[in-house]
Design goal:
With 349 residues, the chain is α/β, with parallel strands linked by helices. It contains 13 helices and twelve strands. Helix 1 packs parallel to helix 5 and helix 7 packs parallel to helix 8.
Amino acid sequence: MRFNREIKIGNYTISDSSSTFIVAEAGVNHNGDMTLAKKMIDTAVEAGVNAVKFQAFKADNLILKNVRKAPYQSVTTSSSETQYEMLKRLEITRVQTQELMQYCKEKNIMFLSTPFEKASLDELDEMGVSAFKVAATDLTNIQFLRQVAEKGKPIILSAGMCYQEEVRRALEAIYPINRDVVLLQCTANYPIRDTEANVNVIRTFGDAFDVLVGYSDHTQGVGASPFAVAVGAKVIEKHFTLDKNMEGPDHKASVTPDELKQLVTDIRRVEKYLGDGVKMPTCSEQMTRKSLQKCIVASRKICCGEQFTAENIVAKRTNGEGISAVYFDDIVGREAVRDYKVDEIIDIL
């Protein structure tokens, strides 16, 4: 399988050579409050991320009413309600989603959303979202993956709670329909221990599936995201909140506004460190190169017609004048075309 190595989401192109596409995951941290949701958009804009992402679901289509909460949800929310009851409280309507999309447009930031079932997928598609994020919960949902792929828009796919073989099956389901895919390494707990981040899976995915890769980061604080960029992540997704102490399943595992800013700063700094991979002297090295690198000079008097040898030439610093010492072997055995004094630069062949 060879997926596309250049994917356009809105006006942003993600490729092996692009800067990292950073998604601030609002998720359900708006607690169903549109005023809070808009404040989160403002925070994402101020942090300098590329997109802010919400979630779209209809609880009745998503979950059976008696399903227990995930362990982390039981810790962060009331144990007296079911997962269905919690999700029902956190639903946002189509009208509210359109309102958030419009607000993002006004603030000049990309709006993204994760659909969790087909009705929400269809609504988001009709509203004109630029791409679909597929959560780790649906990586094994082959029918839904095909439904998403058939929309013909780029897919950002989280690979959490799964085995490599399940990832392969998911990609094989998508591949015949849609090749605009970014695959995110993810450990789907909130938060995770440092030892669970496993950012090297990013390399594993890139090698195994020939696909653009990224990281959905559930570590605490700024966490693993900058390190994920260093091993090849082209998309980073990170949950954020306005207040970790608010009620809700994801607040405590999310970054604060200040941490979100720091995450963006650190990622952009890592990108500067990484460079373009082309080995050549930097601008600042050019003068240093002249002062410190060595060129060939005569180690003793050399007469015109005499051969250059390892005994009559040597490398010394010359302010960059003459022939670089890297060409020592090319000079040895050739004849001098004029006389040279001791320490005179060999510059004519």
